[in-house]
């Protein structure tokens, strides 16, 4: 598996390298800008932004924690102020004399009620109201309105346990507590308020309970101490009791008396949490004096608003920078890469011998223009050289073909052979006459009225005549098999190229095999080509490598006949065609010729 992965990695790397090598220069420039400019800049901007954001959050969180602590200290002083006032009320003569009030008439009780009510009004304001609650099991003060009718005052209750806050105040044993209670007076909506509650005890006998003091509406002065937080947009300030009940707040999102969820162990410090998909920073401080908690909840986005503004400015600068970079790149591409790309396309479309369809530019010091003009001059010189070379090659081919045909065609006269044939036939030597006729056929096809290419059928007739002569010569010591594709007979081929190959097969392969020698001559037309093969079953091993080396010109002064055939084929049809040798599967040698299927000499020129 490891080896497979290494091989896969190498192949993938090779593909990437090859793709980069084949990529156009313009695409390489764009890739270079993206990889080494755009991506590093964006990554650096993202990393720096995140780091600055984290530092900003940490520093702001620390500063907010100090602010919350300071504000909470102010709130504690506010609570201490209520404690001092209630202490003063508790030890006042007006309250303490109630311990030993003798039984009196209703008029005297009314006067006591008025005096107490007047005394409390000195402390009450529009926001903060002071009230006193006394037990009246005997209903001596039934003439006094209850707390359902008045916002504040002196109230008498026949059963103190009916009051929701009574139990908590009693358990405090004279210590002031802050609790959320229902507002006094007409309150159809059950509106709640925050009250400072305290049990009033006798200063002479601490166990004697005189009554209960309730200072309601203290959320108003408490909330006035939230002013330092106003500069933080969307900040929510909450004063909580030990049970996380809201005592005072600056937001309508949390009403007085509502409960707030605080994560376990988050009683002091800074933490973040998600609220309806929005990241909120919470700063909390718990007072050791009042056991209350001051919680500040502010969206992180509000905290880092200045950082976001700076980041947006940086983003705009980067955008402008990238636009300038793109414009500069476009200018570079327009002035340099585009002319080079155009020159590359012209170079790719250029075919030697064909003039370019562009004109030379006016002389300029621009290197691209100079390069383009030099390329046009070079192609013109190359075209002229090609034309000159083409004319020389045509003349050279004509001379070489004439020499080659002169070497292989004996200068016998066809008419003389015809006369000898008829004379021999009249004398009764039929076999000799047939030999002369075959020789005449060979000479007639060899001359072919000066033609260089003849139909395949004529070449086959020539080869058949030659084989008949050789059969007579060697007393029919071998057999010849023919397999000719009818469709191939109409195409043209160089004349007299089968005879030398057949001659080699007879002389070097089967002439001494005493009736066991065989020849196979096959001609086929396939895929626009003519395939001609000559095979023998000769028992003598042949040096195939040497034969092919001779055909490739690697061995000189050998194999004149097959070199002659190879050169004539390639002079007519090019180096992609010609003669080849191979060993047969059983024994013997196989020679095959591959030429194009042409029916007219002009089709290949």
TrEMBL record:
GO terms for molecular function: protein histidine kinase activity. This is Two-component system sensor histidine kinase YesM. Pfam families: HATPase_c, His_kinase. Its EC number is 2.7.13.3. The keyword Transmembrane applies. Residues 400-476 form the Signal transduction histidine kinase internal region domain. SUPFAM superfamilies: ATPase domain of HSP90 chaperone/DNA topoisomerase II/histidine kinase (SSF55874). The chain crosses the membrane at residues 313-333. Keywords: Kinase, Membrane, Transferase, Transmembrane, Transmembrane helix. Gene3D superfamilies: 6.10.340.10, Histidine kinase-like ATPase, C-terminal domain. Signal peptide: none annotated. The keyword Transmembrane applies. It is an enzyme of class 2 (transferase). Residues 498-597 form the Histidine kinase/HSP90-like ATPase domain. InterPro entries: Bact_2-comp_sensor_kinase, HATPase_C_sf, HATPase_dom, Sig_transdc_His_kin_internal.
């Amino acid at each position: 598996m490891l080896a497979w992965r290494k091989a896969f990695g190498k192949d993938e790397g090779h593909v990437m390298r090859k793709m980069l090598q084949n990529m156009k220069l313009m695409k390489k420039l764009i890739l270079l800008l993206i990889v080494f400019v755009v991506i590093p800049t964006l990554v650096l901007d993202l990393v720096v932004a995140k780091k600055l954001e984290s530092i900003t959050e940490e520093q702001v969180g620390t500063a907010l924690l100090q602010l919350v602590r300071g504000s909470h200290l102010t709130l504690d002083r506010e609570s201490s102020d209520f404690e001092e006032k209630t202490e003063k009320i508790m030890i006042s003569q007006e309250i303490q004399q109630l311990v030993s009030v003798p039984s009196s008439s209703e008029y005297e009780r009314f006067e006591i009620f008025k005096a107490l009510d007047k005394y409390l009004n000195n402390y009450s304001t529009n926001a903060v109201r002071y009230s006193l609650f006394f037990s009246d099991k005997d209903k001596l003060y039934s003439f006094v309105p209850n707390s359902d009718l008045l916002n504040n005052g002196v109230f008498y209750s026949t059963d103190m346990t009916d009051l929701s806050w009574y139990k908590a105040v009693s358990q405090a044993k004279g210590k002031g507590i802050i609790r959320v209670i229902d507002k006094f007076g007409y309150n159809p909506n059950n509106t709640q308020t925050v009250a400072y509650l305290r049990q009033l005890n006798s200063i002479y006998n601490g166990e004697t309970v005189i009554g209960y003091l309730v200072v309601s509406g203290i959320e108003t002065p408490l909330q006035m101490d939230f002013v330092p937080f106003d500069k933080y947009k969307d900040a929510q300030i909450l004063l909580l009791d030990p049970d996380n009940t809201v005592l005072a707040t600056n937001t309508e999102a949390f009403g007085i008396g509502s409960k707030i969820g605080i994560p376990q162990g988050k009683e002091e410090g800074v933490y973040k949490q998600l609220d309806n998909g929005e990241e909120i920073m919470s700063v909390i401080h718990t007072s050791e004096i009042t056991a209350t908690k001051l919680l500040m909840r502010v969206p992180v986005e509000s905290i880092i608003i200045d950082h976001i503004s700076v980041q947006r400015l940086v983003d705009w600068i980067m955008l402008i920078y990238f636009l300038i970079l793109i414009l500069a790149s476009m200018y570079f591409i327009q002035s340099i890469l585009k002319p080079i790309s155009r020159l590359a396309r012209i170079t790719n479309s250029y075919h030697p011998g064909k003039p370019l369809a562009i004109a030379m530019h006016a002389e300029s010091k621009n290197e691209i223009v100079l390069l383009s003009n030099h390329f046009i001059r070079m192609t013109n010189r190359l075209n002229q050289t090609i034309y000159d070379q083409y004319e020389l090659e045509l003349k050279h081919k004509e001379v070489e073909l004439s020499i080659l045909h002169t070497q292989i065609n004996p200068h016998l006269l066809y008419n003389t052979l015809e006369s000898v044939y008829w004379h021999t036939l009249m004398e009764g030597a039929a076999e000799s006459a047939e030999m002369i006729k075959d020789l005449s056929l060979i000479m007639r096809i060899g001359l072919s009225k000066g033609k260089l290419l003849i139909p395949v059928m004529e070449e086959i007739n020539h080869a058949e005549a030659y084989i008949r002569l050789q059969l007579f010569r060697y007393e029919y010591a071998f057999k010849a098999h023919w397999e000719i594709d009818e469709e191939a007979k109409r195409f043209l081929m160089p004349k007299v190229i089968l005879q030398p190959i057949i001659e080699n097969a007879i002389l070097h392969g089967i002439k001494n095999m005493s009736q066991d020698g065989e020849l196979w001559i096959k001609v086929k037309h396939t895929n626009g080509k003519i395939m001609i093969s000559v095979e023998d079953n000769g028992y003598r091993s042949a040096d195939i490598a040497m034969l092919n080396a001779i055909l490739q010109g690697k061995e000189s002064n050998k194999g004149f006949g097959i070199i002659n055939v190879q050169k004539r084929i390639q002079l007519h049809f090019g180096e992609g065609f010609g003669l080849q040798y191979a060993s047969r599967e059983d024994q013997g040698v196989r020679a095959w010729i591959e030429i194009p299927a042409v029916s007219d000499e002009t089709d290949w020129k």
